[in-house]
């Protein structure tokens, strides 16, 4: 199996409208692994993850920024 990997500079996901746009794109692309940079998210929890990706078996790891930029959110289908 070849996993589908998506890497994207999200440029801020604090806005629910932007998260909805990303969610709709992910629904259509059906990736196995998603890497989002520059998310600008203050808190990452299950509710936020579900608002971004509707994958039933999603797991994730979040690396917060050290300064003004650099956040990385990696999600995958378990």
TrEMBL record:
Q: Where is the Endonuclease/exonuclease/phosphatase domain?
A: 6-43
Work out whether the entry's keyword set contains Translocase. no
Keywords of the record: Hydrolase, Magnesium, Manganese, Metal-binding
Cofactor names from the entry are: Mg(2+); Mn(2+)
Please name the GO terms that the record assigns under molecular function: DNA binding; DNA-(apurinic or apyrimidinic site) endonuclease activity; double-stranded DNA 3'-5' DNA exonuclease activity; metal ion binding; phosphoric diester hydrolase activity
The record's free-text note on cofactor binding: Probably binds two magnesium or manganese ions per subunit.
According to its record, what are the GO cellular component terms?
nucleus
User: Is Nucleotide-binding tagged as a keyword?
Assistant: no
Binding of Mg(2+): at which residues? 9, 38
Which top-rank group of organisms is this from?
Eukaryota
- Listed GO biological process terms: base-excision repair
Could you say which residues form the signal peptide?
A: none
Q: Name one Pfam family in it.
A: Exo_endo_phos
Entry protein name: Endonuclease/exonuclease/phosphatase domain-containing protein
């Amino acid at each position: 199996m070849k996993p589908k990997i998506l890497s994207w500079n999200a440029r801020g996901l604090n806005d629910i409208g932007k998260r909805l746009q990303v969610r709709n794109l992910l629904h259509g692309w059906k990736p196995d692994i998603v890497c989002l940079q520059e998310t600008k998210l203050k808190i990452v929890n299950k509710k936020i993850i579900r608002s971004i990706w509707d994958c039933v078996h999603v797991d994730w790891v979040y690396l917060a920024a050290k300064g003004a930029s650099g956040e990385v959110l990696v999600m995958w289908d378990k």
